[in-house]
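Table S5 (text form). Sequence records supplied for joint modeling of the two-component complex.
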Amino acid sequence: MDIALVLDLAMKGLSVANTLINVGKNAAPAIHAVKELISGAKAGTLTDDDLTEVEAVLDSLIEDFNAPLP
Amino acid sequence: MFRKISLVLALSLSLGGCAGLQNIKTAVEVGTTSIVNPVTRERLNQMENIAILVFTGLNSWRQACIDGTIPASCKGQIESAQVYTRQIPPYLAQLRAFVRSGDQINAITVYNNVMNLITTVKARAAVNGVSISTVGS
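The corresponding structure-token record, covering 207 residues in total, follows.
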């Protein structure tokens, strides 16, 4: 992978984290998602546990958004 | 005071020579797949990571609305988006099952439904001044 691209992605990842922290949100899931998207998974390397971990994070985020507004 | 939320993850400025990122770009920009481009476990995982970024942005919008830092009209806008986001969980459950069982025909159909819903929600948020731009879009 192009080193310049990786550095660019890392900088944008930091920017995203800063945005989330500024609005009082937990930046960890988004940072992890960016990391996963950058590194990518090679075909056949993902286990059920890997999938389940990401699924749990996404389900929680969707549930939060879908809750009725106070 | 209007506070525009912008979660910009424009990560695909230069995608040359990076097949993985090109796949993400395709997934987000096109949002559909076909039998030629099946929904593998890796592709499912990639889509769910993109969805994590989208929903992180949506939740920031929601929190700003609850906190009252954006105009009160946000409540109606978010409820309008929820009409679509509430359709996603059952599709996701089906998609995960189809991918794990190798049922590509149904996985492709449901994958496209999920991507269409995500694209619709992003568009509705954008109309309301909330930019949730993920990779390549």
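Note: Residues 3-22 of chain A form the longest helix (20 residues).
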